[in-house]
User: Fold this.
Amino acid sequence: MTKVTVLGAAGGIGQPLSLLLKMSPYVSRLALYDLRLAPGVARDLSHINTNSKCTGYDKDELREALDGAHIVVIPAGVPRKPGMTRDDLFKINAGIVANLVSATAKYAPSARILVISNPVNSTVPVACETLKKMGVFQPGKVMGVTTLDVVRAQTFLSDSLGADHYSRESMKRHVTVVGGHSGTTIVPIVTDPKLRSKLVSRRLYDSYIHRVQFGGDEVVEAKQGAGSATLSMALAGFQFVDQILRSIHLEKPDVAPLPAFVYLPGIEGGKELQSKLNTRAEYFAAPVELLRGDVVKIDSQWLEKLGDLEKKSLAVCLGELDTNIQKGRRFVQSKL
Ligand SMILES: NC(=O)C1=CN([C@@H]2O[C@H](COP(=O)(O)OP(=O)(O)OC[C@H]3O[C@@H](n4cnc5c(N)ncnc54)[C@H](O)[C@@H]3O)[C@@H](O)[C@H]2O)C=CC1
Ligand SMILES: O=C([O-])CC(=O)C(=O)O
Assistant:
C-alpha cells in the first residue's frame, strides 16, 4: 500500500507525471492536489484500468491530499519564459515550496519529499531549512530532482557521437550528471573513458557539455513563452519516483543509481565528498544509494573518473552553486 501525492498536479509537468504514476504497479493511492483543476484531472485518470485509486483535491484540501503519503512530489510553481533564468523564479516559487513542505511535515511526516520546482539549487535549501526550523528535518527524505539532466546527457551524448552507432539506450550506463540544476552548475560526467576520448578527439566535448547545461533553454525558446520542459520532465521525474518506489518495495532498480540534489552533511559520504571537492557548498547532486526509499549514501566514485574538462566544469559549478544555496537558506532564516 503506497500513497503518492503530487502537489501542482494540474500543471504542465503534473498532468503527464500523474499519468505515468497511474500506470505504476507500485502505487496504490494517487492523490492529486493543485490550486485549480486537480479533481478534474484525477477523475480523468481514475477511468484508467490500473489498480491504483486516484483522487483529486481542491485548494482547501491540502491536508486530505497529504494524509498518509509515502512520497510527495512537488512540481508546483511557475515555469520560465524566454529571457528568464531559473533564479528569476525564486521570488514566487520559494514561498510556494516553503508552504507545501511545511504542510507535508505536518500531515505526512514520514514522506519522502521530491522537489521539482525551480530553481532547484535554492528551493531544496528552502525545503530543508523549513524542516530544520520546524525541528523535523530528516536529510535522507528530501531530494531535489535532477534526473532530466541525466536524460538529456544520455540523449545528447548519443546525438554527438552518432545515434547510428551509439544508441541512446546504450548510453544509460556511461554518463551521469553531478552538481546542481541550472546552467554551469550542471556537470555531465562521461564515465566511460573510450566515449570520453571520442568526444575529445572529435573536438565535441565543449559543445556537448554546453548543450546539457543549457538544454532547458532550448525548450523554453522553442515553446515561445508557453513554458518550459514538461513531457521530458514528467518522464524524468517518473524515473526518479520509480527508483524510490522500487526501493520501498525492495525491488532492484532498473537503471543505474540516479543523482539527487541533497543536503550533504546529513548523508553518509556527504561530508567526505564536500572535503574531496574542497567546497563549503552543503548541497550537491550526485548518484545516491537508497534504502527503503530514503537516501542513505552519496556516491563519490565518479570523482576518480574525471577528465580535464570535467574538472574544469566542476570548479565553475562549485563557484556558483553556493550562492544559489545561500539564497535559499537566507529566505527561510529571514522569516520570523
Ligand atoms: N527540476 C527540473 O528538472 C525541472 C523543473 N521544472 C520546474 O517545475 C515547475 C512547474 O513547471 P510546469 O509544470 O511546467 O508549470 P505549470 O505552470 O504548467 O504548472 C504548475 C502548477 O503548479 C500549480 N501551483 C502553483 N502554486 C501552487 C500551490 N501553492 N499549491 C499547489 N499547486 C500550485 C499551478 O496551479 C499549476 O497547475 C516550474 O518551477 C519549473 O521551472 C521544470 C522542468 C524541469
Ligand atoms: O529550463 C527550465 O526552466 C526548466 C528546467 O529546469 C529544465 O528544463 O531543465
Notes: Residues 96 and 263 are 20 Å apart (CA to CA). The mean pLDDT is 96. The pocket of oxaloacetate ion (ligand 2) is lined by residues 79-80, 86, 118, 148, 216, 219-220, 228-229 (CB under 6 Å).
